[in-house]
Amino acid sequence: MQGNRIVTHTCHNKETCPPCYAIVQRTCVGGHNTRTAYCYEDKITCNVMCEKPLPCGHKCQEKCHDGICKEECKQPCLIKCKNGSHQCDATCHYPHKCQKTSCKETVTLKCKCSNKEQKALCCLVQGHGKPLECGTGCTAQVKRRRDPGVDFEDWVIAQLESFIEKAQKGQIPPEYKFEPTTSYNRRIIHTQATAHGCTSESFGVEPNRYTMVSVTSSGCLDEEFHEDYDVRIENYCCVRIYEMRR
């Protein structure tokens, strides 16, 4: 008994008195709430989760209890992987570090100019910090982004030469689509297409107007073909005046 209750049981010769069944208010051992209990019940519990912090950093998921929380934690780890993008979904393994092979999420790797992409498992690329190596076309892509007005023509020439070579070998269809661009850039495409013995035509409306280039039997890459380049460009410009004014 608590020492402040009136004794209601009969006289006895036992060393200890029987339990006191008086109704009192008790706070649960977890400190969550107060409820009624018998006087003799020194420690009571409730149905609320304990949620005391564990050494691993998680909160105890046991129901209100007395004493120290169980050290074994079976919750998901949730520590971010070395890439900082995902959380470890393995069972809590404190105090051991996360395994490098634990993160099975898919990530996208890019080269320095972001022109080349590749999918890979996060666990296979953690910590190496190296981007993909730039591949074919990346140099031209970087040039275009750095100074599109100056280097766009060089990029068009490279695209046309690659297109003509593959088309003449039958590796690709004889038509190539240049994505929508400005009217100035389209004129460059038309000019270079003519210079390389190809036909070209623009389709669509601004800002989605694009250019199709078709290789012909006269499409060529050797020096002999380019000897009359200036003459053909002069004639081409006269024909394209109408296109430029559209």
What is the element layout, followed by pairings?
Layout: E1 23-27, E2 34-38, E3 106-110, E4 117-121, H1 122-125, H2 138-146, H3 148-168, E5 175-178, H4 183-195, E6 198-203, E7 210-215, H5 229-239, H6 241-245
Antiparallel strand pairs: 1-2, 3-4, 5-7, 6-7
Helix pairs in contact: 2-3, 3-4
Give structural notes.
This protein is of the alpha+beta class and 246 residues long. Among the domains are: 53 residues, no CATH class; 103 residues, R3H-like domain (Ribosomal Protein S8, Chain: A, domain 1, 2-Layer Sandwich), CATH 3.30.1370.50. 26% of the residues lie in helices and 15% in strands. It is built from six helices and seven strands. The strands form three sheets. A three-stranded antiparallel β-sheet has the order 5-7-6. Strands 1-2 form a two-stranded antiparallel sheet. Strand 3 and strand 4 form a beta hairpin. The longest helix has 21 residues. It is rod-shaped, with a radius of gyration of 39 Å. The C terminus is likely disordered. Pfam families: R3H. It is found in: Nucleus. Its main location: nucleus.
Task: Identify the notable features of this structure and list them briefly.
Ribosomal Protein S8, Chain: A, domain 1, 6 helices, 3-stranded antiparallel sheet, alpha+beta, disordered C terminus, 15% strand, 246 residues
Q: Give the CATH superfamily of the domain at 143-245.
A: R3H-like domain
User: Tell me about the biggest sheet?
Assistant: 3 strands, antiparallel
State the helicity in percent bands: 25-40%
CA-CA gap between termini: 102 Å
Rg estimate, integer Å: 39 Å
Question: Quick one: overall form?
Answer: rod-shaped
Structural class per helix/strand content?
A: alpha+beta
What's the helix count? 6
Please state the average pLDDT score: 76
Strand order of the largest sheet: 5-7-6
CATH architecture of the domain at 143-245: 2-Layer Sandwich
- In terms of per-residue confidence, which ranges show pLDDT below 50 for 5 or more consecutive residues? 222-246
Within the CATH hierarchy, at the fold level, what is the topology of the domain at 143-245? Ribosomal Protein S8, Chain: A, domain 1
The portion of residues forming beta strands comes to 5-15%
| SSE pattern, N- to C-terminal | EEEEHHHEHEEHH
Q: How many beta strands in the DSSP annotation?
A: 7
Which CATH class of the domain at 143-245 applies here? Answer: Alpha Beta
